Amino acid sequence: MQIGIKFSTAIHVVLAACFFKDEKVTSEFIAGSINTNPVIVRRLLCTLKAAGLVNVAAGVGGVSLAKEPKDLTLLQ
Description:
single chain, mainly alpha, 3 helices, 47% helix, globular
């Protein structure tokens, strides 16, 4: 079974939000760490927010986890 780019990018986003929880994690920061366009990350963040996995603050507010890391699964 092939896992798409969106899945690995989503895992990267969630891990970045968890690892850098004391800092401001923006779409530009995440996009720079995976060498992609910030718009791609923002679109993915909308999906993750709709799923209830992350909180996104407007502007340069940043990304944070909506749940505790121990409560997250790859299936979600």
